[in-house]
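Workshop exercise sheet. Pairs work together: one partner reads the sequence aloud, the other fills in the structure field after running the prediction. Swap roles for the next sheet.
Pair: D.N. / O.F.
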Amino acid sequence: MTKVDLIAKVALNADMTKKDAEKAVNAVFAAMAEALKEGEKVAVSGFGSFEVHERASHPGINPRTKEPITIPASRNVAFKAGKSLKDAL
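Structure field:
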């Protein structure tokens, strides 16, 4: 499902125009992204939770040259499905 498909489905289920549904979907994603940027956990009851995980820098090997390199620290978003979603699958 793409974002366009999601917007169409929201518009149909919420009995609203696609333009209004697009605003709503974009607002939800923007709010989630802002919360994650601030380091907050985003929990959607019955669906799951999103959380930022910090990954420390660590040594690695360049596969092309076989030289040792340092992989920089990074922040990644992790999703954990909630019980209702797991049961639905």
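Discussion prompt: The chain has one domain: 3-88. What would you look at next?
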